[in-house]
Amino acid sequence: MQLTEYMEAHGHEQLCVFTDTNVGLKAFIAIHDTTLGPALGGVRFWPHKTEDDALMDVLRLSKGMTYKSAAAGLDFGGGKALIVCSNDEKTEAMLRSFGKCVESLGGRYITTEDVGATTDDIEIISKETSHIAGLSLSLGGSGDPSEMTAYGIYEGMKACASEVWGHTSLRNRKVAVQGFGKVAYYLSKHLIQDDIKVIVADINSAAQARAKNMGLEVLNDADDIYNIECDIFAPCALGGIINDKTVPMLKCKIVAGSANNQLLEDKHASMLQNRGILYAPDYLINAGGVINISVEIGQEYSPNIAADRVAGIYEQIRLVIETSKQNSITTAAAADFIAEERINSVKSSKNI
Ligand code: NAD
């Protein structure tokens, strides 16, 4: 499929390509939908092998952001940025150059942190653009969103538990966590407090060491995570990991984690359902970060207000589960239904 055909089919408004050879910047910004407000979404640093891979990633991620904000009740659209580079290639000059790209869009896209980015990076980018959120607490921002994202995942897990086991307690359950980055670290703190056994897989030795230091079991081969007998599989690394190969391998009752675009294709939601596995739609259960950031935009940030709103993810996951049962659709389709209903109602009221 041609790029524009893909964008039309998925409702994308805009795709921007930026290069700055002086600083080695290759960046893409995808704006999916701005019906509800400016496109909000993080900037991801990842050394994609091909340009097609990078484009598909940024387009898919931006669409996920539209649905995430819509389902979470926020007045933002969906966007995402991708800088094609590895962590050790990141420089101040590159970050500032990216900031100018964001600024050039005049507020149609608001950037923040995603995989590979740090709060320090966000501070550097903010020297060149005001269309940014997730600044450090000392600069009046909401700081690293990972902690609130993790809190939302934990609340979402409890909502899933209430459906599967008839009560919200996760005590003594076993959770297999794929990826031990920022979100998984905070999530594990909640899980440990509930006496949950946490098994971790990560391809990065520093992340593995961090998990071991918390007393967690770490797999030698990260790919073994799909075979682990557990109650909950928590994908907290990258997308596309629920696919033809992995669904038959899973030995869990619930899939609930922070990674964006966990399902490689829509059909994988049905495959999970057919295997009796409850899937917590990724963009809804991981909305804690964006809810937290929304509390910073245009007002003074309050962690208590943010935490209260993030706790609402419990009810939103319950609503998705009920909608899926009432309409005999997957939980993924139910979340889309709730998000699309909101966007379409605003679109039609604007067209009157
Ligand atoms: P991170 O970069 O801090 O951590 C990701 C971890 O995954 C890294 O330790 C990395 O080594 C590991 N990893 C990569 N590929 C792997 C593989 N194949 N197997 C095992 N481990 C692997 O990222 P993060 O901020 O913790 O975010 C994790 C996921 O959650 C991402 O998909 C991100 O888009 C999503 N997310 C994050 C937030 C947030 O607030 N940080 C919010 C919403 C969604």
In short:
With 352 residues, the chain is α/β, with parallel strands linked by helices. It has helices at residues 3-10, 51-71, 92-104, 119-125, 146-164, 182-193, 205-213, 267-274, 282-285, 288-294, 303-311, 313-327, 331-351; strands at 14-20, 25-33, 39-45, 77-83, 109-113, 174-178, 197-201, 217-218, 232-235, 254-255, 278-279. Nicotinamide-adenine-dinucleotide (NAD) is lined by residues 114-116, 145-146, 149, 178-184, 201-204, 207, 222, 236-238, 258-260, 286, 289.
List the helices and strands and how they pair.
Layout: H1 3-10, E1 14-20, E2 25-33, E3 39-45, H2 51-71, E4 77-83, H3 92-104, E5 109-113, H4 119-125, H5 146-164, E6 174-178, H6 182-193, E7 197-201, H7 205-213, E8 217-218, E9 232-235, E10 254-255, H8 267-274, E11 278-279, H9 282-285, H10 288-294, H11 303-311, H12 313-327, H13 331-351
This protein binds nicotinamide-adenine-dinucleotide.
Explain what this protein looks like in three dimensions.
The chain has 352 residues and is α/β, with parallel strands linked by helices. It folds into two domains: 3-63 and 77-132, Rossmann fold; 146-287 and 314-339, Rossmann fold (3-Layer(aba) Sandwich). It is 43% helix and 16% strand. It has 13 helices and eleven strands. The strands form two sheets. Strands 8-7-6-9-10-11 form a six-stranded parallel sheet, sandwiched between helices. The chain has a five-stranded mixed sheet with strand order 1-2-4-3-5. The model has no long low-confidence stretch (mean pLDDT 95). Nicotinamide-adenine-dinucleotide (NAD) binds at residues 114-116, 145-146, 149, 178-184, 201-204, 207, 222, 236-238, 258-260, 286, 289.
